[in-house]
Each structure stands twice: as structure tokens, then as C-alpha cells.
Amino acid sequence: MTASRIVFPPLSYVGWGALGQLVPEVKRLGAKHVLVITDPALEKLGLVEQVASPLRQAGCSVHVYTDVVPEPPLETGEKAVAFARGGEFDLVIGVGGGSAMDLAKLAAVLAVHEGSVAEYLNLTGTRTLEKKGLPKILIPTTSGTGSEVTNISVLSLETTKDVVTHDYLLADVAIVDPQLTVSVPPRVTAATGIDALTHAVEAYVSVNASPTSDGLALQAMRLISRSLRKAVENGADKQARIDMANGSYLAGLAFFNAGVAGVHALAYPLGGQFHIAHGESNAVLLPYVMGYIRQSCTKRMADMLNALGGNSSFLSEEEASRRCVEELERLVADVGIPKTLGGFGIPESALESLTKDAVQQKRLLARSPMPLLEADIRAIYQAAFAGAIVEPNNQ
């Protein structure tokens, strides 16, 4: 067995009230001119002021940048980087969901580099990152993306997505305060929660899984499966929000170290072509991908059944793995996410173009425990359209 490369961000604060560590950390980093990148909706809700006001009181100048949209296109990334380059900032803070945090990471690192963002993309870029960039603090306001602990910034292209990825994109400080997630509406809570669950599930079956990522992934599944329904039903449920924040954080660490695979590879084109939120793209595909690859990882899926609240004690691995897929399907349905591609308005005529784009996600597909070729990907999309789990031997 080869050695596993395990990377964690330098420093994290996780727990109710963790935002209280912001000012001490800004002082420790010696920052005076702060760029806060956030979603405009969070500014209207007053969440951004909870970040900016203490910093101003501590003597920092704070500029709040809100040109952030869900599933940010490459153009949005270029604008954020240009803005960071044009200011005299010494710290970047990302506040929000994955889109805001991804843009904050990108702006902080590329602020000290030349060239366009497009030149640093994973699939087509020709430049490499050579400097760490500005210090960055990441503060999630949803429990889902894990962006606060990863080295990836995701951008939407014309029909799919690509990433800028390097350890320089890791946060200097991650602050995960579940109190900031209480106002998140049910639909976003559901989508981001299934996103976090998908991170844990795919990390656990990844070909790059390790004992470390396994422990993180299984505990994330336990926390999320017991709390997501509660958080969707009652956003003010403090314990549910705490469990979801911790589960999302652990899932982020798990997938950062083990990687995600087929679900994400097939989800990217849904976001690129139809602008479906990333969490919902993952959610609608999760049972179909896991059902299709089940035979390649039956033991691991039996383990997952227990982590998801089931009991495999009196079941064969085969039966337990089937029950695991059923439990994933049930959880997605219980939190109100459509169970088919048609439920998102995607026509059957789009399945071929989705397949062609998903095949290009080789970085993600390489981690699947079952090789997913073009025919397999097409079969999974067809299953997700029809609403029926299929396996390679029963297509």
C-alpha cells in the first residue's frame, strides 16, 4: 500500500460562536486593508455586517465586493481577480457559500500573478501558480460545499465546469460557525446538505481513500444523515445546524484528501448547460451513480448503510449495499429535491450533450472505483431521466 498524502488547512475554528475568532486572527495576520467577497443576498440579510463591523472597529479598512453569482462563470472570476489586483489589499475574506469562497480563493492567489484566470484552468490552462498570494480567511454560511477546507476554485464554462486547483488556494484560516447558517432557507439547506453528503460518500468509495479520509467520511455521513431532515424542517434547530456544520466540514476534509468522482463528473454539465445549483445537481444524480457502481464497492456501501442510520448486521454485503442506495434515494426525496432530470426541466434530447461533456471530466472520473466510460455515463443519465436505478448488467 502506498503512502497517502494528507493535507489539512493550517487553522480552523469550528463551532457555535466561532466567528468571535475573526478579529484576533486578522490581527495575527497583520492585515489592515481587507477585501470581503460575498453574495449580495448575504449583505442584504445583514450577515456580512457581522464580519465587517468588528473589523472596522478594530481599525481595518473594509471593502465589500458583491459581484458574486451562483455557479460563477469564468467572466465573474476574471472580474473578481481584476478587482483584487486593482486594490491595495493585504487580506481577502470569503463569506458565503461555495461560489463566494471559491472566488475569494481565486482572487487572493491570482492577485499577485499575471495573466487571465482562463490561463490557469485545469483542463485547458497553460500557466502554473508560483506564489501563495494574499492571506485568506474563509467563512461558510451554508453547510455543504466544503470550499473552506479545499484547494479548488470551480468556475462555469459555456456548457460545463473547470477548476483552478493548487495548495496555494488553501485558506490560512477557516471559520465554521453554524450560527451563520440558521437563516438559510429550506431548499438551500437541502441542496447544500446533500452536496456535503455526496462529498463524504464519494470520498469513502474513492480509489484514493485512506484510513484518515475514511474516518472523516463516515463520521460526516453519521452527522448529516441524522440532522439534515431536521435542519430542512426547522432551520432554527440548533443541534441540527451544529451537526450539519460539523458534517460538512468533515466531508470537505474527506473529499479534499480522497477526491470525488462520478457524481460530480456528471453533475458539472448539469450546472454548465442548465444552470442547476451544484448541490441539486449532485443530489439528483447521487442514487443513480451509486446504484450503477454498487457492484464495484459492495463492502464499502454496506459500511455506509450503517453510517446512514441503517443496520447491516443481518444482511449480506450485497443486500446491504442495495439498501444503502435505497437510503440515499429516500434521503434525497425526504428533503424535497426532485428525483429525476425531468423534474428540473431537462429534456431527454439533452442527454447526449450531457454525456459528451461529462466524459471530459477525467480528473474526477479517474477516482471512481468502477471505470465509467461513455456508454456508462449515458446509461446513468438515462436512468436519472427515467427515475429508475440501473446497473451495468440490467441496462
From TrEMBL:
<dbReference type="InterPro" id="IPR039697">
    <property type="entry name" value="Alcohol_dehydrogenase_Fe"/>
</dbReference>
<dbReference type="Pfam" id="PF00465">
    <property type="entry name" value="Fe-ADH"/>
</dbReference>
<feature type="domain" description="Alcohol dehydrogenase iron-type/glycerol dehydrogenase GldA">
    <location>
        <begin position="12"/>
        <end position="178"/>
    </location>
</feature>
<feature type="domain" description="Fe-containing alcohol dehydrogenase-like C-terminal">
    <location>
        <begin position="189"/>
        <end position="385"/>
    </location>
</feature>
<dbReference type="InterPro" id="IPR018211">
    <property type="entry name" value="ADH_Fe_CS"/>
</dbReference>
<keyword id="KW-0560">Oxidoreductase</keyword>
<dbReference type="Pfam" id="PF25137">
    <property type="entry name" value="ADH_Fe_C"/>
</dbReference>
<keyword id="KW-0520">NAD</keyword>
<protein>
    <submittedName>
        <fullName>Alcohol dehydrogenase</fullName>
    </submittedName>
</protein>
<comment type="similarity">
    <text>Belongs to the iron-containing alcohol dehydrogenase family.</text>
</comment>
<dbReference type="InterPro" id="IPR001670">
    <property type="entry name" value="ADH_Fe/GldA"/>
</dbReference>
<dbReference type="InterPro" id="IPR056798">
    <property type="entry name" value="ADH_Fe_C"/>
</dbReference>
